[in-house]
């Protein structure tokens, strides 16, 4: 739980949002350590304050669950992210777009489906949707740029249905929702649930919005959920993946695939997850999650895996909300800044100790440090340049985990006298700048330093 003063500050921010944005009802939560640490609600649903069990429609947050099943198929070897769509859903005019491009909205597809505004009308079967696609469905060259596409996730939903021989929502329920205990997340609303409204821009009046089964477009935004269930999903995005996916796979989904806002790089997209960078009282945060909107509903869920905290909110209004998620995170950081993890020593193998300390790539000083589980880090002393972490391999080498050397092999070269140098994908690191005793590519001038 949060402290009393923190709870009051969070509730006040929520109350200001509900009043000033004129939202019929609004719920929000802070998730910390996988549990709801704070819950707040304002407004009314059927005359009563909404609770943790009141359903709201979450719109495009649905995409994150569909993407999770796609990644399960990848991890099972049933597909490759570089596979063209045509390999699994043949017959569309978009067959050369890859699974990864659909997941990251970089396939160049049009944003919406052909025909009427799909979010306010009953859906059509997938066969009718595919038949309506034509050359104009491709708006950009695949891979060229970020262009959000609801249509792309409709096609991913069909991919899931064909690979699982079951409707996409059944696959999501059986493979994601039930294992995580998210039993109140459903394709259609169940009581108690909020009604979706549009708020008149110049009067305090409401207009009910339609709610339909969207057929082939449903994977783009069909689902309803509760605060309790969405809190579990926030923990999943942050790394508490249960048996649904490996944490490494969710970390892969959180990696930036495209940048949404050009040079700023404040918002981007991974594999089925939106990404955001935010600087507040707690310092810089790198968030992963998704926003959602459907006529009558807005929602948002964001996790900070580094801090072990997440935020979510849901509202039954077509428009009007502001940056409530980051505002709540800032209040939490201001009132309850996290304590650093307590340091304690850990056993280190003797053969790793001799690798620690300064190394030189040419004249540039680096330092090697030992990480848990026999890992290593290689970092420029200046703090600027190519840095990576490495994990040990069975053959005695180390594999780059991140940074410039991700996927590259680090070899420790020894002689009878000890370690002579490090070989990192043709780069030679020596104990002295351009050590003449080491096999520096191109050799070392015999006159030495002058």
From TrEMBL:
Keywords per UniProt: Hydrolase
The protein's Enzyme Commission number: 3.1.1.103
Enzyme superclass (EC): hydrolase
Secretion signal span: none
Residue ranges of every copy of the Beta-lactamase-related domain listed in the record: 18-323
GO molecular function: hydrolase activity
Family annotation (InterPro entries): AmpC-like, Beta-lactam-related, Beta-lactam/transpept-like, DUF7586
UniProt domain DUF7586: residue ranges: 348-431
Entries under SUPFAM superfamilies matching the protein: beta-lactamase/transpeptidase-like (SSF56601)
Top-level taxonomic group: Bacteria
Protein name: Serine hydrolase domain-containing protein
Native source organism of the sequence: Microbispora maris
Taxonomic path: Bacteria, Bacillati, Actinomycetota, Actinomycetes, Streptosporangiales
